[in-house]
Design goal:
118 residues, mainly alpha
Length: 118
């Protein structure tokens, strides 16, 4: 049994398990095109790719979609707790992160300052 190289945050481009061209095609493709691209990639590599994509804010959703093509054990072996969470996320409808935005009018902040009454 071979052990996969640990993922690193030092130089994330070095950790990408596929070519930059493949990542670009995956980002630009629709669901059917992505399925076609992923069919030729071994599951262990897809799991590493899912973690790599999910770790970047602009490719979260694609990472979740790639994770949906992997089984839970492979994702857990690849990324431990992160793989487990990614597996869970990939099995439910994707909800884009709101990054702390609020809805409604409660708690509005005015940049105009306070009005003083004389």
């Amino acid at each position: 049994m071979t052990k996969a190289r640990a993922l690193s945050v030092d130089d994330p481009a070095n950790d990408c398990p596929v070519s930059p061209e493949t990542v670009g095609q995956l980002i630009k493709s629709d669901a059917e095109g992505a399925t076609y691209l992923l069919d030729g990639i071994p599951e262990a590599t897809r799991a590493r790719l899912a973690v790599w994509l999910y770790g970047r804010s602009h490719t979260h959703e694609i990472g979740v979609r790639v994770a949906a093509t992997c089984d839970g054990a492979t994702l857990r072996r690849t990324a431990g707790l992160v793989g487990n969470v990614l597996y869970d996320l990939s099995r439910r409808p994707y909800a884009a992160p709101n990054h702390g935005t609020r809805t409604g009018s409660a708690g509005r902040i005015s940049l105009g300052g306070s009005k003083r009454r004389a």
